[in-house]
């Protein structure tokens, strides 16, 4: 659940974008990079660049062309290092943290790092100096030494990453900055955790995989929803066989964000809304995809092989603007192409099906769906309910609270965790820092990050090609065939 901070400068290898919506950016050069994913694609056809950027220029894609383009990117390049699957952190008594991005999300998450023993916040970074200084005061108020502040310019995060007294970099910035910041952190010898999505282009996902393997640094998608209480209970029940042979699951990010996306104070600029002028597909698949992938042991005995996506017409944001935004507001120069609702079907190597949904542009109560079904029954969330044979035989939903015995040890140990989103944020940070202190294998790795994010560009291209199934790369390069541990961990000895 990523919010904040201003974009850093646009990557130097991406030419400037031109178009109607870019008029908004020209008035604020610090936000030009919001649009960089569509740059340099005009006339490029459906090669690697067009697929990776996932742009509107691919609108005329035929199904054969789209499949050919996706297959080209899905083909695994030669491995440059060794696999990071099952690789533990180095054990350390204190985890030294640097945080990049201190807006809505970063400002709240720093409190959780400071609440943990054996964790020190050594440096903070934001292009808005007031935000960095506010974060620094939190650090000293927690009894820690004053952290270094990096707020000189939009490149100053690079200096944070160069420090020799940081073990872990936490990236909490707009989406287009996640890739360059994660890359910089690893190249400087740091493990890195990134809010979702971890990148916006398929070739960037491959680069992060290769960099993680070459540098021997973990690059993780910090997907807090994987640590939800219900999600972790279902995970343990699934692995215990209560659902029988798993057949299908569903996850979503259906969250009405219209008011927030048009609020000039909530997001630092219009960066999130502007993505709806560039991509038609699922912009935020991770919250729904991650938990279901864990249930099915994706990358740990199964893998996702294809995705087919469809989308509705893009009406919601324009309708909201018509009703709420005054004439002359910069948003009136924007043309929205993002589908109000996208629906994707993901197939796994074992023949399972995962349904993903994304809708932030229309009225809808919050829901991540969070469903899992097998040969013995099904669980559905929002609201939570379950039906398992042989206990249930009357075609009536049962009370999920009856299954509290299956709660994960993290939730038994931290029954009332502090922090946002029902405590899942704290559980995530606690477990990550625990793994780093004790030298454990992280619960998820760069391969999970790449898989959970791949629907961003692929759903866009599939929608352009009228729902044609497209291949999802095997980022593990065959390692998925080996069973290994993941989120369903055992409590370690401290």
Written overview of the protein:
The structure is a single chain. The protein is α/β, with parallel strands linked by helices and 494 residues long. The chain is 31% helix and 15% strand. The protein contains 17 helices and 14 strands. The strands form two sheets. An eight-stranded mixed beta sheet has the order 13-12-11-7-10-9-8-14. It has a six-stranded parallel beta sheet with strand order 3-2-1-4-5-6, sandwiched between helices. Helix 4 runs parallel beside helix 5 and helix 9 packs parallel to helix 12. The longest helix has 15 residues. The protein starts with 21 loop residues before the first helix and ends in a 23-residue tail after the last strand. The relative contact order is 0.17.
The helical percent reads 25-40%
Helix vs. strand class: alpha/beta
Low-confidence stretches: 1-59
Strand composition percent? 5-15%
Largest sheet: 8 strands, mixed
Tell me the radius of gyration.
22 Å
Q: Count the strands?
A: 14
Main β-sheet, spatial strand arrangement: 13-12-11-7-10-9-8-14
Count of helical stretches = 17
Molecular shape: globular
Averaging pLDDT over every residue, what do you get?
A: 88
The termini sit apart by: 30 Å
């Amino acid at each position: 659940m990523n919010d904040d901070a201003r974009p850093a400068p646009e990557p130097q290898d991406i030419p400037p974008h031109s178009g109607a919506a870019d008029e908004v950016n020209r008035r604020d050069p610090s936000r030009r990079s919001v649009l960089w994913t569509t740059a340099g694609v005009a006339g490029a056809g459906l090669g690697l660049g067009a697929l990776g950027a996932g742009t509107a220029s691919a609108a005329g894609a035929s199904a054969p062309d789209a499949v050919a383009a996706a297959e080209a990117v899905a083909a695994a390049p030669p491995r440059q290092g060794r696999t990071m699957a099952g690789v533990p952190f180095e054990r350390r008594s204190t985890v030294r943290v640097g945080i990049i991005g201190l807006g809505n999300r970063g400002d709240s998450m720093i409190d959780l790092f400071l609440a943990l023993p054996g964790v020190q916040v050594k440096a903070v970074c934001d292009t808005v100096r007031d935000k960095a200084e506010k974060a620094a005061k939190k650090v000293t108020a927690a009894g820690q030494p004053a952290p270094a502040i990096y707020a000189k310019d939009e490149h100053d995060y690079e200096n944070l990453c160069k420090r020799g007294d940081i073990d872990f970099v936490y990236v909490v910035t707009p989406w287009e900055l996640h890739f360059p910041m994660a890359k910089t952190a690893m190249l400087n010898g740091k493990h890195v955790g990134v809010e979702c999505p971890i990148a916006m282009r398929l070739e960037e996902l491959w680069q992060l995989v290769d960099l993680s393997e070459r540098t021997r640094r973990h690059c993780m998608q910090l997907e807090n929803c994987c640590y939800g209480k219900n999600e972790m209970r279902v995970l343990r029940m699934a692995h215990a066989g209560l659902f029988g042979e798993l057949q299908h699951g569903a996850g979503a990010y259906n969250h009405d964000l219209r008011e927030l996306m048009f609020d000039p104070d909530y997001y630092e600029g219009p960066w999130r809304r502007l993505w709806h002028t560039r991509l038609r597909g699922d912009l935020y698949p991770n919250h729904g995809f991650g938990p279901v992938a864990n249930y099915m042991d994706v990358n740990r005995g199964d893998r996702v092989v294809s995705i087919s996506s469809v989308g509705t017409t893009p009406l919601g944001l324009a309708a909201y603007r018509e009703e709420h935004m005054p004439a002359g507001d910069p948003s009136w120069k924007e043309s929205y192409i993002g589908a109000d609702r996208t629906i994707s079907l993901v197939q796994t190597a074992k023949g399972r099906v995962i349904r993903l949904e994304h809708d932030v542009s229309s009225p809808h109560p919050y829901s991540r769906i969070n469903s899992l079904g097998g040969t013995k029954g099904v669980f559905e969330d929002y609201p939570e309910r379950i039906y398992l044979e042989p206990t249930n035989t009357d075609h009536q939903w049962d009370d999920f609270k009856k299954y509290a015995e299956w709660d994960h040890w993290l939730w038994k140990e931290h029954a009332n965790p502090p922090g946002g989103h029902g405590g899942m944020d704290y559980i995530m940070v606690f477990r990550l820092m625990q793994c780093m202190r004790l030298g454990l294998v992280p619960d998820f790795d760069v391969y999970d990050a790449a898989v959970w994010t791949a629907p961003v560009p692929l759903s866009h291209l599939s929608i352009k090609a009228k729902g044609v199934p497209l291949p999802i790369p095997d980022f593990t390069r065959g390692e998925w065939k080996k069973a290994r541990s993941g989120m369903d961990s055992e409590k370690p000895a401290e």
